[in-house]
Amino acid sequence: MNQEKKPGKKRLRKSLMVFGCIIVGIVILALIGNGIKNTMFGQEKDIAANGPYIATLYVEGSIMSGQSDTFGLPVGYQHNWTLNKIDEMIADTNNQGLILFVDSPGGGVYESDELYLKLKEYKDKTGRPVYSAMGSMAASGGYYISAAADKIFANRNTWTGSIGVTIGTLYDISGLLDRYGIKTETITAGRNKAMGSSVEPMTEEQKAIFQSLVDDAYDQFTGIVAEERNLSLPDVKALADGRIYTAKQALDLGLVDDIGTFKDAVDDMRASYDLSGEVIDVVYQDNSFWRSFLGGVQIPDLKNGDVSALMEVIEKDQHFPISYECELLK
Question: Origin, by domain of life (predicted)?
């Protein structure tokens, strides 16, 4: 009996070796054919236009840096890529204008402001028009970047506004730790160095410090809206309480210029600036080998239990970059 099983085991090992060699061969061929950078991270191609064109730059999802999946592959909005594409358009004399298609709940204060400033740079250096065409939502940071536009079009079903700032949710789980008999000790120099820790109650001084951070960012946000939309600062602060507005409400408040579709925005730009170029989509796409090879693989969630689930949420939220992001629409 044992002698009859040995050939089967050898065939199995041989089959596994052949399969492994095939996989390695595919990887090597991909690396040779595309180059390591393009294979691992996708290709960054120039904007393909045969002549004068209006660019549509897509800002979809959270406006954050370095967004990637389980395997480290880029997903969603890609911040540095977007900034680079605007630089490319600044230098491209065939480019006639830029339409920002925004479908975003917002994002980081840093990234939102950096994109806003890059759009302002595009306008200042080229003198070309920038429009914002809002999708289903252009809230908080999504509205912040839209403020740079010469004209804002909101779809009739758009939710926008949410002008405000958040630092996220800070948890105090000291009571939970007491319940399970867990003791912690944080070693710091400076009484506020560990402020925001989930294992100690926040002091009034620490609350005031965090509040000062969001207040400064809020003043920056409302100041930009007042300047770009030709509104008084008191009027902006009166409407900037963090609430979401419908397209009609936003139009009545002067936050948008018109209610219409993306096509309406294109037609308006062409008519207003006498442009005849084609419309070119500028959207990030990862066509790399690794995306096609690993994109369909799902990693099972092996965590379970109430405490485990709670700790996972806390761990995620404890990274609290200050943000222009609508919590409801995330």
Answer: Bacteria
Tokens 């939970």 sit at which residue?
176
Catalytic residue ranges = 140, 193
- What angle do the packed helices 204-228 and 109-126 form, to 10 degrees? 20
Beta strands in 205-277 (DSSP E): 244-246, 258-259
Residues in a beta bridge with 323: 108, 166
Q: How far apart are CA 192 and CA 84, in angstroms?
A: 38
DSSP for 97-127?
A: EEEEEEEE-EEEHHHHHHHHHHHHHHHHHH-
Q: What is the pTM of this model?
A: 0.76
Distance CA 220, CA 114 (A): 13
Domains and CATH numbers, the chain: 51-295+303-329 (3.90.226.10)
pLDDT in tens, 179-231: 888 887 778 788 888 787 777 888 899 889 989 999 999 999 999 999 999 99
Tokens 């002067």 correspond to 254
